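Researcher: Predict the fold of Septum site determining protein.
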Amino acid sequence: MTSAHILNPGAPPTDPRRRARRAAPEAAADRALPAAAEACTVGYSGSYPQGHQSLAAHHPGSAGLPRGAHVPGAHAWDGPIAPRLYTGQAVSAGAPGRPGGRGVRLFTDSPDLAEAVDAVCIGAGAQLTVTRESGVAAASSDLVLVDADWRGDGVPPGCVVVALAGNGDAWDVATRFQATAVVVLPHAAAWLAELVSRSTQQTAESALGRVYGVVGATGGVGASTAACWLAGHFTARGTDTALVDGDPLGTGLDLVLGEESEDGLRWPELHQFSGAVAADQLWAAMPRVDALRYLSWDRHATHADTVPSATVISALRGAAAVQVVDLSRADLARQAPWCDAVVVLAPRTVRGVLAAEHAVLTCGAVPAVTVLAGLNVADVEPRVLAEATGVPCVATLAFDPRVPQHLDDGSVLRRGRISRHAKAVARIADALEGTS
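Model: Structure tokens for Septum site determining protein follow.
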């Protein structure tokens, strides 16, 4: 896939054999993103595909802030700062004339990292407070940065992980802390300065979107179909929604949507990015079906082991009010923590009930609900499934013999709008929203 797939996601079809497309309303595609999208980003550690740039690439200090470098919205600074003693007190003085602005809190016991971050904060005119001991909670108004080597607590979800070059554990730490970004210094110092400058001037907290996972207790139960219908339900309500393919071996959700020829960002193109990509950049590059954005794998699971999936999904919380992720059953233990809640689809068989019980246990502390799907082979009722799994059975998706044909011709979203399916999906959505 070329860079044109990213730079021009709304390009008209050029393949005469592609399936008929539904017209996408331009007003929906061009509507303004919430301010939260500008502040929630994802960082990468490799190089961009041709034609794609990071925020950091727009500034001369993308490899660190050199002498005299200036980031728009920040105060210029000149040269390195003297070593400081970090005691948990405020370090940099912050911007004069802006009392009461948001501060920056860094959780670290590394003087080298603290000095590097403080240099950025000075350049951005922001006040930095360094926390060296566990148990100190950050103020709700602070922009929270956390050292990739931090082993303490007190770190709220939505933080930004910072690391010095050469730290290979930053991505795992970002998943553990539910971070919205990974910043490697000094390479992404310019981008961090821009984020600090923007965030410390915000006067209101920005709400992050929710992530709902859908997984089949067994294969062939219709989890991908249910994920598409659930995403379509939220989109029809006017919610900015992203449908995310979490199964690299599923040959791509774009096939289910009938959009395999549509231009736009796919998972493999997020392999080895460098610098930082803002959530609104990801959102704009994702292809869409009408107003529904989606992020799909390709046919061959290209770069499946190196794409930072968890961090991308976390970053997209800044642009999408709801993400529906079609989870991989084989990788559920790793993927479930990405989500605020998980829907487990169970076939109406004894084996299905036992498999659903295992899937719910695999989700761990992540809230889960169950849904019965398909033919009632063993006379399984919602009460039986709820008792076996210990979580509510919130709906039943009736067997529909026409769904395979709709999956094959790319019209599965349309099939989900018929009354009996739409009502069941609405009950699932209500149950998920009730888990917040």
